[in-house]
Design brief:
- The chain has two domains: 169 residues, Phosphatidylinositol Phosphate Kinase II Beta (2-Layer Sandwich), CATH 3.30.800; 194 residues, 2-Layer Sandwich (Phosphatidylinositol Phosphate Kinase Iibeta, Chain: A, domain 2), CATH 3.30.810.10.
- It contains 13 helices and 14 strands.
- A hairpin with a 5-residue loop joins strand 11 and strand 12.
- The longest helix is centred in the middle third of the chain and has 21 residues.
- Strands 1-5-6-4-3-2 form a six-stranded antiparallel beta sheet. The protein has a four-stranded antiparallel beta sheet with strand order 7-10-12-11. The chain has a two-stranded parallel ribbon with strand order 8-14.
- Helices cover 38% and strands 17% of the residues.
- It is α+β, with helices and mostly antiparallel strands.
- Helix 10 runs antiparallel to helix 13.
- Keywords: ATP-binding, Kinase, Membrane, Nucleotide-binding, Transferase, Transmembrane, Transmembrane helix.
- It holds the Pfam family PIP5K.
- This is Phosphatidylinositol-4-phosphate 5-kinase-domain-containing protein.
């Protein structure tokens, strides 16, 4: 079994064991062997849920996610359980994060390997996040369904051979695989941040010192427009204003707008109301996409010209300007600007208010409003 498979098994166990789906050793010998295996495991660490009642309340009371359905997404699929419940996706990225998707595509699991990130979320942002998400159903902040942390002694924990913290979040690309099976055009997505900041990988020596693969991991650029009616645009901007106000209040920077675009299916009927018919033909009618009832930026908003459906979510709000790692980076960038070259701030060293201002400006610039 590979490293990623063992990490995935740990995550699945943590999610399913509280739903009566976990099988514990039935005799003392098996229990001793299991404990021995746990202590000497490098990758298959024991994880527990942080604030499980709070996240369960969000899922049940505010997002209409049934406990059994949620746990079932983390169970092997297929008649013989042949499909793994979690599949590794993407690469390790700059942060060293691991990414998984459930087999049914409803949820994503992302590790938070940096202490500065998971400590900020657990100690400072978690409570306001839970309270905010319970009272703002149309928020664009990604819906975090569980927060997992390693517990108990093990060699893997001491050596940091596997991530110690993971977040489980809903997947706004849910439905993509079904669309591909129907022969529809593949969905496009962008991970957007303000690109006017200093990115060493891109800006030092014109990027000649960094590989193309590394530069591709930087923020995307959306060279198009989201065409919206005025009321759609105002709703979008209003949600962004409120969400980023919360993040700035807690010193978060470097978050991104994850944008998904789907093309109109060839067979979609477009007559009297292209936006309405397009929307109903492409939006999944089950959690984790609802509530609130469609249309929303989580379920999909039809463009004013009837050509596309857009989804959007704010991701990666775990970098806090006041944490030690962020302070160290800020000092380094100030020295760089003073002694070597004046490139200005990076997205991780700027102030929360300034980052929010540029982020909102970026979001407004990709929208075109049509009043007709």
């Amino acid at each position: 079994m590979s490293r990623k498979e063992k990490i995935a098994r740990s995550i699945v166990r943590a999610i399913t064991k509280t739903n009566g789906l976990d099988r514990r050793p039935s005799n003392p010998v098996a229990l001793i062997l299991a404990l021995f295996s746990t202590v000497f495991s490098l990758y298959q660490l024991v994880l527990r849920k942080i604030r499980p009642a709070d996240f369960a309340n969000l899922r049940r009371q505010h997002w209409d996610v049934n406990d059994d359905d949620y746990a079932q997404s983390f169970i092997a699929q297929g008649d013989n359980g042949g499909d793994a419940p979690l599949k590794a996706i993407g690469d390790m990225g700059f942060s060293g994060s691991t990414f998984y998707s459930t087999a049914d595509q409803k949820y994503l699991v992302k590790s938070l390997p940096r202490h500065s990130e998971h400590s900020f979320f657990s100690q400072e942002l978690l409570t306001p996040y839970v309270q905010y998400m319970a009272t703002n159903p149309r928020s664009l902040l990604v819906r975090i369904c569980d927060f997992l942390v390693v517990t108990g002694p093990s060699i893997g924990r001491m050596l940091r051979s596997a991530p110690s913290h993971h977040i489980v979040m809903d997947n706004i690309r849910y439905g993509r695989e079904e669309a591909k099976r129907k022969g529809e055009a593949d969905w496009e997505n962008w991970d957007l941040k303000p690109t006017s900041y200093f990115y060493p990988e891109r800006d030092i020596a014109g990027g000649a010192l960094t590989s193309e693969a590394t530069k591709k991991q930087l923020a995307d650029e959306f060279h198009d427009k989201i065409i919206l009616r005025r009321e759609q645009a105002e709703d979008f901007f209003s949600n962004l204003e409120e969400d980023t106000k919360l993040l700035a209040e807690y010193n978060a920077v470097d978050y991104s707008l994850f944008l998904v675009r789907m093309k109109k299916p060839q067979e979609a009927a477009v007559q009297d109301s292209p936006a309405t018919k397009l929307q109903s033909s492409m939006i999944p009618g089950e959690p984790p996409s609802v509530p609130p009832s469609p249309p929303s930026w989580r379920t999909g908003v039809a463009s004013a010209d009837g050509k596309h459906i857009f989804r959007a979510s704010i991701l990666d709000f775990f970098w806090a300007k006041h944490k030690v790692h962020a302070k160290a980076m800020t000092v380094l960038i100030k020295l760089w600007n003073l002694l070597i070259s004046r490139h200005g701030d990076m997205s991780i060293t700027t102030s929360p208010d300034e980052y929010r201002e540029r982020f909102l400006k970026m979001c407004r610039e990709i929208v075109e409003i049509r009043d007709d």
